[in-house]
Amino acid sequence: MQSQLTRCVGTWVVTAAVALATVGASLAQAPAPATKGKGAEKNAKGGLKAPGGVPPKKLKRHAADPFANQGNNPADKGKAAAAPVWPFHYKFKITAIDNVPLAAVYYPAQRGTAAVVMLVHEKGRSGKDFEDGIEDLHDKGLAEFLQSQGYAVLVLDLRGHGANPRREVGAKEGKVLVGDLQAAYQFLVDRHNREELNLAKLGVVAVGEGANLVAAWAATPGAAVSSEGRVSDLEALVLVSPVAEGFGSKLSSNLASVAPRVPMLLMAGERDAASFNPVKDVQATVARQRQSKVDLYPTSLHGYKLLRFQPKVADAILAFFEATIKKARIDEWEPRYNLSPVVYGDIELVAKKAGGAVAAAQGEEAKKEPAKEEDAKKAPAKEDDAKKAATKKEGEKAPAKAKGAGAGEQKTSAKTKGEEKAQPKNDADGPAEKDAAKKSSAG
Questions:
Q1: pLDDT tens digits, 170-182
Q2: Which of 82, 156, 166, 387 has the highest count of CB atoms within 10 angstroms of its CB?
Q3: Residues 122/306, Cβ–Cβ less than 8 Å
């Protein structure tokens, strides 16, 4: 009896242990909330991990806004910042998935829930390429012009480029760079939840090898996905001068999966050896999406030079975004579930704002005020001096006029004397005329 009881207890313990192990294993495999700054970690399948869970309806973001108090005087710490004068932008740094800071610039739209565009530069260059003036855009940079047209804009400096510590970035780091783009997207999720933009209207412009990188990101499962159960927010891609392979990413293989579902515009120069053939090779693939197209230009310009100097390129990009994301019938804004918000800091506000450029101008005017007041005080004295000088000049002119008048009198006198001299001659003829008259009367 005792042995049977012992066997039963032993069997129960083993069964319980197996059950607990099974539960533990299932819990370990369940998607856990991502840790801070880890929203773009790679999952077991090679994609980008999206925060788990179903988004709660009518979610409102109440966290403090890192941009809120920018532009304040340090002495005014704790006070609400004066509203900057639009247009303005922020320079700041995003924390990547491996805690590397990445320089970025954010141009808010003037009105909330706007369409948004991310700009990605080519290898060896920086986000400043999107600040350089383009003639077709009235000499404004692409970023500034898109902002003026109602878009929110994010410009990212890839690691090793631009305002980040400079170094060579090889093909082996392609996956890390894809994670950097996802970190930039997580920043946009934060601004979306603050109702500054609408991620359902997300477009990307990428140049050169950066275009290959964006294609690789778009092809990665979980790219531009804010939470499980949602589809990617990528709605339009503009790839300017993509190459056959850039940052370890092959253009043809990535576009094979992206082209059927995302509208895209490919642009290249017909005499650009690095881009023309790769673009022609994928032209049929791109044509699978009815809104997609390939634009070829009669030039050898490549990358940002094609974007900046080739006529009608910038206009074509604007027209493409107008049709695909800005005026497209897309669902209204709704909040996003964001378990892994990106960390960002080192913020600098660039704007004409109170306490900034305007205040500086006001300060210059204030400096001029005392001088103006002094000039005002001196003005009556100057007027008196001017009157005295005028009176003096009139006084000097008066004798001259009198002298001139005397000269005129002398001339008149001389004329009279001439007439008097002529008169005796007439008198000399007088007696002869009188004699003639007498003879006539005598006859």
A1: 899 999 999 999 9
A2: 156
A3: no
d(CA 302, CA 200): 31
CATH class of 76-354: alpha beta
The bridge status of strand 249-250 relative to strand 245-246 is: antiparallel
Tell me which DSSP letter residue 342 carries: P
| DSSP single-letter state for residue 140 | B
What is d(CA 357, CA 362) in angstroms, rounded to the nearest whole number? 9
Helix (H, G, I), strand (E, B) or coil at 226: coil
Global pTM?
0.69
Which tens digit of pLDDT belongs to each residue from 195-229? 999 999 999 999 999 999 999 999 999 999 988 87
Which alpha helices (H) appear in 259-341, and where do they start and end?
A: 276-286, 304-309, 313-321
Q: How far apart are CA 81 and CA 73, in angstroms?
A: 9
Q: Which of 211, 180, 165 is nearest to 94 (CA)?
A: 180
pLDDT confidence of residue 142: 98
- CA distances (Å), origin 214, targets 87, 208, 239: 28, 10, 8
Which of 78-92, 285-299, 373-387, 401-415 shows the lowest mean pLDDT across its residues?
A: 401-415
Alpha-carbon dihedral angle through residues 285, 291, 292, 296, given to the nearest 10 degrees: 130
Residue carrying structure tokens 């003879």: 439
Gap between the Cα atoms of 263 and 305, Å rounded: 24
Q: Which two tokens stand for residue 414?
A: 């001389």
Question: In this structure, are residues 324 and 235 in contact, taking their beta carbons and an 8 Å threshold?
Answer: yes
pLDDT score of 8? 45
Task: Please tell me the chain's helix, strand, coil percentages from 3-state DSSP, rounded to the nearest 5.
Answer: 45, 15, 35
